[in-house]
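Pilot study result, target chain (485 residues):
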Amino acid sequence: MSDSSGSSALCSMLQQLQSRFTWDLQKEDMDMENLSTRLEEHIKLPLGRPGAVALSYSFLAYVRYLQNQPEEALSLLLQSEQKTRECYGEESERRLIVTYGDLAWLKYHTGYYLESQTYCQRVQDILKKYPSSSSTVLHPEVYGEQGWTYLKFSKSFYPKAIKCFINALEMQKDDSEWNAGYAIALFRTEWNKPEPSEKPEDSAAIKQLRQALEINPDDAVLLSMLSVKLGVYKKHEEAESLVEKALKTDPENPHVLRYIAKYLRNQGENDRSIDLLERALKRTSQSAFIHHQLGLCYKKKKIAEQSSKPYKKQMVQQLRHQCIQNLEKAVKIKPSFALARADLALMYGEDKDFDRAEEMFQHCFKMFPELPDESLRQVIHQRYAEFHFYHTKKPADAIDHYKKGVQLTPKTWEWKQCIKKLKKIADGRLSEDEDDSLAYALLAQVAKAEGDMEKAAEMFEKALDCDENNSEYLSALCELRMNLH
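Predicted structure:
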């Protein structure tokens, strides 16, 4: 066989492998520095289910490959193989399909073609020993590892993670690991501000968290996640019992502490939440999530202090600065953390540091093409509108971004805030001038966003009565009338 045909055959074998090298994990979709830091901490803190550390070694190996550190990547993959064997013993072979696939690709990229071929053969030997039901169906261990990979590497991959865990559960419906992975993926993707008419039974995340806990009732991370979800639906009695059980089961796990702290913050127990988050930071100091949560706790304490009569200005300033400090740490640890950036920018505005606020908001807007969902873009528009509404006193800019927020994901908290402010601005303008065309146009856009097309048309007609030559209002009215008839 010639070198070219041998190389072609090896490339063909590699392309057929299930591996992080073939799962379309693009560098630009990840926050490499933050991901690297988190994985290093996971390896230092051997938390969670069996096999989690072995996976963290494999994840970090792929990150090191992307960072042009192939020697460290190889060392990490070999450690992953060793940890997998230690954890699963005789059951480890199917757990090594992806690891050997990664090793085959890494050896190929570093020019060790014979060793690459050896790892390809190892995968083939395992697949022959444990054949799947068809050539298009993967082993559940492979679906599971793919799911964890997507869940760990980027928020933009979460929908793919859900599909992977569903595939694994179709083959092993009572497996505790796949049930846990599916529950976590749903928890991270499901909206946390349900409509008043919605019940806990309507939540796919709550249903799956319960399912996973039936199989593994002492999983403290799942217990803490379920407490957060139940708190959203005001099921406080059950949520409190889950909090107590989770803290008793795994009292020093930073992942448990951060979710329970979130539950407590949502219930207004900011001091207890801060205590737990500070405890969590002692074990995982480089957590952007925890610093963001701490920032939000100090913000809520600040708001509570401001609502007291009379309030202590020095205390408000101190709490504001504690909020800013933690948000700055969150952004420094994870530069791609758009939500923390938007919250920080708004706090700079409140602190009268308008230049830094504007700079931070503009950074957020530049991130728009990279943001995985429009709800984050909506958050940034809403925060920027608040910045101009409350701090710079530029109503035209505030209106522009409230309007942009309304055009995005409906029924979210931010959407409702944009609706509320547009109504307030319109009502305020009409109280001063009952022939204010802009005010009627704003009410028309609000009505349209709320689905009341007849009222929207009526408001645009009033706007045109006040400004009959406005082509924008006329065009909007014509479009509405066409849809109504």
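One observation from the pilot: Residues 313-333 form the longest helix (21 residues). A full batch analysis is planned for the follow-on phase.
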